[in-house]
Structure formats: structure tokens, C-alpha cells
Amino acid sequence: MLDTTATAISLLGPVLDQAFQTGGGVTGPLKQLAAGLAIGLGGIGPGIGIGIAVSGAMQAIGRNPDAAGDIRGTMILGAGLAEAVAIYAFVVALVLLFV
């Protein structure tokens, strides 16, 4: 853990120095880092949620094939709601980059 932290600090050190020495506040490198973190971390939750939803739906359809239509519709609705969180993260990343 200590080695990865030291490596991250040594890699980000020059970027942070350059960003804050210009006096203009948050500049390009930090905006790009923040946007990357926003979309990267914002995509983890929906990805896990959709995986769990599809897994549960497949198990339910396997146990009761007659209810496949109802299960599929509910799964697609839930997956769409989870995907909305990823879209919000994408919008935040774009705002960070271009504003």
C-alpha cells in the first residue's frame, strides 16, 4: 500500500505543482484528473448494480420461466435507473472539463 501511495504522489506531484503555480486556480491537468475520477468512480456503482440485477433476473427466470416477461420488464426498468447514475457522472465529468 505504501509503495502505491508513494508512486501516486511522485506521479501527481509535478501536475499539482504546475497547476497551482500558475495562479489561475484549477487548470487543465487537474480538470482532466477530476473528470477521469468522476467518470471512473461514477461508473463503478451502476456497473455492479446492473450486474447484480441481471444475475437476479436470470435466476428468477430460471426458477419460473412463465414470469419471464414481467421479470424482464422490471429488470430493464431497474437497469435504466442505475444507468442514469452513470450518465450523471458523465455529465459531471463534461462540466469539469469544459467549465
Task: Explain what this protein looks like in three dimensions.
- This protein has three helices and no strands.
- The mean pLDDT is 84.
- The chain starts with a helix and ends with a helix.
- Helices cover 88% and strands 0% of the residues.
- It has helices at residues 2-21, 28-63, 68-98.
- By secondary structure, the chain is an all-alpha fold.
- The chain has a single domain (27-98), classed as F1FO ATP Synthase, CATH 1.20.20.10.
Write a brief caption for the model.
The protein is mostly helical. 88% of the residues lie in helices and 0% in strands. α2 packs antiparallel against α3.
How would you describe the oligomerization state of the chains in this entry? single chain
* Sequence of secondary-structure elements: HHH
What's the tally of helices? Answer: 3
**Rg result:** 20 Å
Residue-averaged pLDDT: 84
End-to-end span in angstroms? 35 Å
Number of beta-strand segments = 0
CATH class: Mainly Alpha
